[in-house]
C-alpha cells in the first residue's frame, strides 16, 4: 500500500466481549456504546502517523474531527467554546471530545436532522443509568428484598429525578434549541430529563465506564439516600400515583378481581390500572395490603423488573 494512503474501517474499535463476574451484565450493556458511536456515523481513519475519529459526512453536513491520540476537540466559535467551558465546570467533567458534549446538549428542534440530536444518546444513557443505579443498590443494601430495591430504583431513575438534577445543575442555560423552543417561557421537564440521560451516555463514550459511574454516583447518590430513607413510608400507591400523574397525566385505579376465604379471614386479589393498562394483580390479607402490593407490581412492570407479588 502506498505510503500516506488512508484506510477507513467501519468496524467499531476494540473488543465487544462480556466479562465474567458480578459486573458481567453491566459490561454487556455498556459494550453497546461501541456500536452507538459507530451507528452515529463516527469512523476510525488510520493514517501513517496518527488516528482520527471523524463524523461521517452522511450524518452531518459538516465534518468534526477529534484526535483520538491526544484528545483534542472540535474547534468551535469562541462564544460556543466559552459556553461549553462553563457547562463542563458545572457538571464536573472535562470532555476530550466537545463534539459529544454538543450532541448531548442538542435538542431535536435545534439539530439539522434528528440523527444529529441527543435522542440516540438519551436511549443509551437511560440504559447505563439504570444499570449503574441497580448495581449501587444491590451492593449498598444487601438486606433489601427485590421488591424494595425495585421500588427505590423506580424513584431514583424516574424522569422527575433526572429533570430535578438537570434543573439543579442549570443545564437549561446550555441547551441548543430551535427557534420554536426558545420562545417558550419555561423549558419542559421532559427535555431536562432527556439531557441528563444524554450527558450520561456522552460521558461514557468520552471517558469510559468509570467516568460515567463517578458522574452518576455524584449526582444520583443523594437521590438514592432520599428514596431509600423511605420518605413515602412504604406507600407504593403514593409512588405509583406520582409516577402515573407525571408520566401519563392519569391517576391509578384499583380493581377487585377476586376474593376467597371465610368472612373473618378473607383474601383479596386486586390489580392496579393506569388508563387502559392493567398490571399484574396481587393477593393480600385485606384490601389495603392487596392494593399496596398491586401498586408495587405495577412499579416493577413499569421499570421492566419481575413483579415481587405474582398472583398465580
How are the elements arranged and paired?
Elements: E1 7-9, H1 24-30, H2 32-39, E2 42-46, E3 51-55, E4 65-67, H3 78-91, H4 98-105, H5 119-140, H6 146-156, H7 159-169, H8 179-182, H9 189-207, H10 209-228, H11 236-248, E5 253-260, E6 267-274, E7 277-278, E8 282-284, H12 287-302
Antiparallel strand pairs: 1-2, 2-3, 3-4, 5-6, 6-7, 6-8
Describe the structure.
The protein is of the alpha+beta class. The chain has 2 domains: 7-228, Ribonuclease iii, N-terminal Endonuclease Domain, Chain A (Orthogonal Bundle); 249-302, 2-Layer Sandwich (Double Stranded RNA Binding Domain), CATH 3.30.160. Helix content is 49%, strand content 12%. It is built from 12 helices and 8 strands. It has helices at residues 24-30, 32-39, 78-91, 98-105, 119-140, 146-156, 159-169, 179-182, 189-207, 209-228, 236-248, 287-302; strands at residues 7-9, 42-46, 51-55, 65-67, 253-260, 267-274, 277-278, 282-284. The strands form 2 sheets. It has a 4-stranded antiparallel sheet with strand order 1-2-3-4. Strands 5, 6, 7 and 8 form a 4-stranded antiparallel sheet that branches. A hairpin with a 2-residue loop joins strand 6 and strand 7. Helix 6 packs across helix 12 (287-302). The longest helix is centred in the middle third of the chain and has 22 residues, at 119-140.
List keywords for this structure.
single chain, 312 residues, alpha+beta, Ribonuclease iii, N-terminal Endonuclease Domain, Chain A, Double Stranded RNA Binding Domain, 2 domains, 4-stranded antiparallel sheet, 8 strands, elongated
Amino acid at each position: 500500500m502506498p505510503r500516506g494512503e488512508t484506510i477507513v474501517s467501519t468496524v467499531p474499535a476494540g473488543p465487544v466481549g462480556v466479562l465474567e463476574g458480578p459486573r458481567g451484565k453491566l459490561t454487556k450493556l455498556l459494550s453497546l456504546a461501541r456500536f452507538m458511536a459507530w451507528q452515529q456515523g463516527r469512523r476510525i481513519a488510520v493514517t501513517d502517523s496518527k488516528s482520527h475519529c471523524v463524523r461521517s459526512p452522511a450524518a452531518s453536513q459538516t465534518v468534526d474531527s477529534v484526535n483520538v491520540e491526544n484528545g483534542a476537540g472540535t474547534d468551535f466559535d469562541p462564544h460556543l467554546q466559552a459556553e461549553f467551558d462553563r457547562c463542563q465546570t458545572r457538571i464536573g467533567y472535562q470532555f476530550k471530545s466537545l463534539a459529544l458534549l454538543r450532541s448531548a446538549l442538542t435538542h431535536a428542534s435545534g439539530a439539522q436532522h434528528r440523527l444529529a440530536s441527543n435522542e440516540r444518546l438519551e436511549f443509551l444513557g437511560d440504559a447505563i443509568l439504570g444499570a449503574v443505579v441497580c448495581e449501587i443498590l444491590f451492593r449498598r443494601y444487601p438486606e433489601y428484598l427485590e421488591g424494595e430495591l425495585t421500588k427505590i430504583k423506580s424513584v431514583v431513575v424516574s424522569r422527575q429525578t433526572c429533570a430535578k438534577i438537570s434543573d439543579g445543575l442549570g443545564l437549561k442555560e446550555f441547551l441548543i434549541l430551535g427557534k420554536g423552543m426558545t420562545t417558550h417561557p419555561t423549558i419542559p421537564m421532559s427535555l431536562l430529563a432527556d439531557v441528563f440521560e444524554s450527558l450520561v451516555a456522552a460521558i461514557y463514550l468520552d471517558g469510559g465506564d468509570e467516568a460515567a459511574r463517578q458522574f452518576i454516583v455524584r449526582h444520583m447518590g443523594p437521590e438514592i439516600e432520599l428514596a431509600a430513607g423511605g420518605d413515602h413510608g412504604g406507600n407504593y400507591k403514593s409512588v405509583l400515583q406520582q409516577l402515573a400523574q407525571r408520566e401519563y397525566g392519569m391517576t391509578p385505579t384499583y380493581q377487585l378481581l377476586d376474593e376467597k376465604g371465610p368472612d373473618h379471614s378473607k383474601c383479596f386479589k386486586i390489580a392496579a390500572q393506569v388508563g387502559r393498562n392493567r398490571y399484574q394483580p396481587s393477593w393480600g390479607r385485606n384490601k389495603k395490603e392487596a392494593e399496596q402490593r398491586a401498586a408495587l407490581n405495577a412499579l416493577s412492570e413499569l421499570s421492566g423488573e419481575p413483579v415481587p407479588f405474582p398472583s398465580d
